[in-house]
Specification:
Elements: H1 2-16, H2 27-51, H3 54-76
Helix pairs in contact: 2-3
Length: about 80
């Protein structure tokens, strides 16, 4: 899914004359980024529980969801 999106964006950039090349993702990079998002998400959730801040809880939940999606994308590669 990420590769398809990158290809579409690169085609759009080429049509518009923009010289931006998006980086290629590999299984190892996606796995690493997934772990980083998981740690950040867990930290934000813990901070949200301690400080009772709803925004921090939401960001933590989104980071964990992003981690899960990246891990599933890494498995597809």
């Amino acid at each position: 899914m990420i590769d398809e999106l990158n290809n579409k964006i690169n085609k759009l950039n080429k049509k518009m004359g923009v010289e931006v090349k998006l980086p290629e993702t590999s299984k190892s990079k996606l796995t690493r980024y997934s772990l980083i998002n998981l740690v950040a998400g867990a930290s934000l959730l813990a901070l949200g529980v301690i400080t009772e801040t709803k925004g921090t809880l939401v960001l933590g939940g989104m980071a964990i969801a992003s981690s899960i999606l990246m891990k599933s994308e890494a498995k597809r590669k």
